[in-house]
Amino acid sequence: MTDTAADRNQLPAVVSDPLEPLPLLRRELRTGPLGLSGREAARRLAVYGPNEVRQTARTSIVRELLRQLAHPLALLLWAAAALAFIAAIAVLGWAIIAVILVNAGFALVQERQAEKAVETLARYLPAQAEVVRDGQTQHVPARDLVPGDLVVLEEGARIPADARLTEGGIEADLSMLTGESTPVERLAGPGLQGMPLLQEPNLVFSGTTATEGQARAIVFATGDRTELGRIAALSQRTRREPSPLERQVKRVAWLIAAVAVVMGAVFLVTGVAVGLPLTDSLMFAIGLLVANVPEGLLPTITLALAVGVRVLARQGAVIKRLSAVETLGSTNVICTDKTGTLTRNAMRLHELWTPQQPTGAGQVTAELLRAAALCTAVTRESDGRLHGDATEIALVEGAAQHGIPLDLADRDTARRAHFRFDPRLRLMSVVQASDPELMRVIVKGAPEAVLGRLAEGEPAGQAQDAAAALAGSGMRVLAVAVRELPSGTAAPEQRQQAERDLRLLGLVGLYDPPRPEVAAAVERCHEAGLTVHIVTGDNGATAAAVARSVGIGVPRLHVVDQSEAIDDHELDHLLRVPGTEIVFARSSPETKLKVADALRAHGQIVAMTGDGVNDAPALHRAHIGVAMGLSGTDVAREASTMVLTDDNFATIVTAIESGRRVYDNVRKFIVYIFAHLTPEVVPFIVFALSAGTVPLPLTVLQILAIDLGTETLPALALGRERAEPGVMSRPPRPSGQGVISKDMLVRSGGWLGSVSAVLVMSAFFYVLWRAGWHPGDPTGPGTPLHHAYLTATTATFAGIVTCQVGTAIAARTDHAALRDIGFFTNPLLLAGIAFELAFTAALVYTPVLQHLFGTAALPLDVVLLVAVFPPLVWGTDEIRRWVRRRCGGSVR
């Protein structure tokens, strides 16, 4: 069927107000009790499109691979490989290409761990929907639903689109949208103006579930226009930005590339100008490029972050993106939920309040407990555990603990009516028969809702004051009231008839205690300079009490009672107040997104917790989105960066500490890797400046053997180094601070590198001079000094490796002395050192590898000479750090 302009004009517009009177809604959607015709449904499908959450196209693997191959470090290596092929050194060219592919492979694996929140959202839609068309009930693919369709909802069915009930009623599980576990009642009837959309009593939403009842509903939104589609659109618009480490490594890579190209070009021209053959000049340029590129940097960082991910997983935090480990280390604000994260999510009956009565208080309390337990909908599973709302389970268990056990079967047998919890009224009620003639209405709910339905003369004011005091102590407060029905009276059929003229039994205070480890974790946050805000749907008094009990809000706590109403200007003002931690109460997922955006605009690195489907945009937007592994939805887990397997706030703090340790360790092995650039570059500079009178002290293949062979395992072992003392006693690093600082470059290249360069060049000249070499003597193949030259380059190679050993030991600490952490506390580093020494011995003494890498066996005196390099390199750096500590400086 074609879609003409005339047809389009006859179709209904997208409904902007599904709450208008039902006849008007039906007229606008041109539908009725018989549903749409098949032809009309097909025409609307052509206009509105399929009822599905659309997904943006993912970048192809080929395109991502090409992007990795065009990384600045990769481009530099491509240039080196091209020069190698031009100089007819094919083995070297292919070796460099292999290095490029290995680096790109590591990066590609990391990039393909993309978020799948939209794909998971799509899985919430059912495959089939029951719909009335042409007056007949039929099953159609859910993707073919259109606005105006009349859908049939049955118990247990997944709701296929946003719709307004026209007949009947259901209980709907909206937890994936609201985060509230209790099903809510949805009935055909008029809408209420001013209510949030998700709380409207006659609306149901795509992707949620009908847990009880039967109903019919008119579809008013499909596909991307549904609440589910809106969340998906937000999730796709809030794209992940590169982590600080990713940005900094790329910036440093461009810097290294620029320096290497400029040095290569300058010395290439210089070599030709001083009369070096073109082949030698090209060899020099290749060597300079390769020596300036830390080939092992990217794979080493990737593998070290992967190790951090495994460590965090054992501690209860599953990291989904490798670079997030480093981002954790720079986090300075945590926005956390309350229930289940700061608290145990184990509601318990904590306190009772009853009006002053002349009768015994014990009798009144027993009546209050029994009535509260009867006014519940909990069930008992086959294993004996209670199932249902956590608050109601707490009431039943609390009554049993006070000697008033409840038989659930007897409760259900004696129940004559049940008016389920209504989120608008904030109460529920039941009619229970104590014997065939006597019945009693029991009502429980929010104090202000119940107290407004008391009979004249009941102590409403006194109870309101008591309720405020209990809420101020961090308790959830419920009021319980009753009304005895006259003998022979039938059970009320409507709740308005039941919930009136009540007699107050009292108040129950339910307490969800904080997790015992949270207070210590919050204290560690404050010591580390982190700010903790609470973003919760609970009321302000309860959330503030929980905050104070765990130490949040020291020295100043500010409570925003209605967070949804806060504007950007007021929010910015609050976030600028120093030393203030905020409770955002009665917040929605949109509030979380607003808070995350504001904190990012203030230059903060934000960790945000969430568990519901519509938390996905905020979890995307935060630098670290933290989903709950026990109570969270699949969408929240997919949208997050980190999943807590225990839903515990303390695990977030542990993850931040691990992130700081990993960041410090990344800096340590960058110091370790960059320290070897100087002794690798200096031989080529000496070769160029001497105009070839000094033969090349190091071959390009030997450099590759160092960068990809000997230094990799010790670098990885440095990634497993324990945290230095005081890692959580310093403030978070500024978000703009580079992972590579001036002090690091001075330490690595200027100090450790210079010491290493002097030592290895000393070994090179020692071997040549011992063989009688003089500047300018030929050392090529067939000359008397050729073997001595091979031995000298091998001494340079072995000297760099042994200097690596000293550098690895020195790099274990940034400022502390080695004795503070212990020499043997990192067995992996000792194993890595043993491997690199064994690998070096294989290259030096194995004939096949000697021929490939241009090495020769070292005599004993040369071995003894290079063996003293490690303590010399480490010792000089130990002295430097001692001087800095005495002067009150820092090595950072």
Task: Give the arrangement of secondary structure elements.
Blueprint: H1 5-10, H2 22-29, H3 38-48, H4 61-69, H5 72-86, H6 90-111, H7 117-122, E1 128-133, E2 136-141, E3 150-153, E4 162-173, H8 175-178, E5 184-187, E6 203-204, E7 209-221, H9 227-237, H10 244-273, H11 278-292, H12 297-314, E8 317-319, H13 324-330, E9 333-336, E10 348-353, H14 361-374, E11 379-380, E12 386-387, H15 390-401, H16 408-414, E13 415-422, E14 427-433, E15 439-445, H17 447-451, H18 460-472, E16 476-485, H19 495-498, E17 503-511, H20 518-527, E18 531-535, H21 540-550, E19 556-560, H22 568-576, E20 580-584, H23 589-601, E21 606-610, H24 616-621, E22 624-628, H25 634-639, E23 642-644, H26 649-674, H27 677-689, H28 700-710, H29 712-718, H30 742-770, H31 786-810, H32 818-821, H33 827-845, H34 847-853, H35 860-867, H36 869-886
Parallel strand pairs: 9-18, 9-21, 18-20, 19-20, 21-22, 22-23
Antiparallel strand pairs: 1-2, 1-3, 3-7, 4-5, 4-6, 4-7, 8-23, 10-17, 11-12, 13-14, 14-15, 15-16, 16-17
Helix pairs in contact: 4-6, 5-6, 5-10, 5-11, 6-28, 10-11, 11-27, 12-26, 12-29, 13-26, 14-15, 20-26, 22-23, 26-29, 26-30, 27-30, 29-33, 30-31, 30-36, 31-33, 31-35, 31-36, 33-34
Q: Count the helices. How many? A: 36
Mean pLDDT across all residues, rounded? 81
Backbone shape: elongated
Measure the end-to-end span: 70 Å
- Rg, Cα atoms, Å: 36 Å
Write out the strand line-up for the largest beta sheet, numbering strands in chain order.
8-23-22-21-9-18-20-19
